Amino acid sequence: MINMKRKGLLIVISGPSGAGKGTICKELIKRNSDICISVSATTRAPRKGEIDGESYFFMEKQDFKDDILKGNFLEYAEVYGNFYGTPKEKVFERLESGQDVILEIDIQGALKVKEVYPKGVFIFILPPSMEELKNRIIGRGSETPESLMTRFESAFEELNFVSRYNYAVVNDDVDIATSRIENIIEAENCRVDRVGNELIKKFGRR
Amino acid sequence: MINMKRKGLLIVISGPSGAGKGTICKELIKRNSDICISVSATTRAPRKGEIDGESYFFMEKQDFKDDILKGNFLEYAEVYGNFYGTPKEKVFERLESGQDVILEIDIQGALKVKEVYPKGVFIFILPPSMEELKNRIIGRGSETPESLMTRFESAFEELNFVSRYNYAVVNDDVDIATSRIENIIEAENCRVDRVGNELIKKFGRR
Fold first, then answer.
1. Which residue ranges form the domains of chain A, and what is each CATH number?
2. By the CB < 8 Å criterion, does A161 face chain B?
3. What is the ipTM of this complex?
4. Based on the number of CB atoms within 10 Å of its own CB, is B25 exposed (0-12), middle (13-18) or buried (19 or more)?
């Protein structure tokens, strides 16, 4: 058997709010103990039940700003006065050790990650229909009618960004969508532009 | 559920002699009744047990030459005075109707197909090791020592062409290799550059 020792894959799971990114990522990790998920850092206060280092790395605003200046984030954003970001070093360490890392992230974040790490596998999660997306956003029940319309409009706009991704997966069923992502990961591990050099070393040298 | 009505995929299974292309293709078709395999045309005489239209389309040399001039082959080659080729129309009809088509073909043929149909999925089948490739070629028992060395040398040379393919699949186990190819097909069906336009039509138009 060929030793295809390689870097891990950075698998970016992204898409509009309500598409079901979070549920799919949970299922993916449940099924694949060898894949790990990147935990984001944030300056917002922990909500009830959230665990530091699991839900998020909770940080003081000043520390976060210092880390920005040090270039410690793969991407970051300020949303309603709070910062959110992806700690770079943890992700890169794992990739170097050959582990696949999942990044569950919004579209703006994914596009920033693509700029600095285009070798990532960029997967856009789609709702089965706009109607269903609306139902899911409403179903969360945590929105006012105004913020709901804003969310819905912005989800609609965001769908146009699908063209910047490598793959689109329709989340009509969490199990099926998760299996599709597993297939994508398997296929990416057979791509010649990822494993070609290893193969040529193994076979092609005279 | 989004209707992802699309063209079929042209899946080109290629690699050096002895890598196990044929066995993998048989398994792939056994498992997936919706995938069909392209039957080659040839001017060589049928061998015992070969069925016209299944093993090959057996043709007269003059008819084959006429078809070449008419541009009826996706690729063709002359080997030891016999012609072999892939009938173009049958393949394209099936792709248009949305059916996936497998082409089991040698490396020279695959590279020609890539020129005229770069949208194909080009998969290179690798033996688990050069030692194993040697054993498999010997195991066929139909070779003289000289032709065996020639075959082996040429297989070795051919491995360098892996870089022209999209995917490399190591055939250490037929079941696993076949599953890898199934994963690749599934993943290709999620590629934005294949389904993007359908998605944008469905969701993105205001």
1. 1-35+100-206 (3.40.50.300), 39-99 (3.30.63.10)
2. no
3. 0.83
4. buried
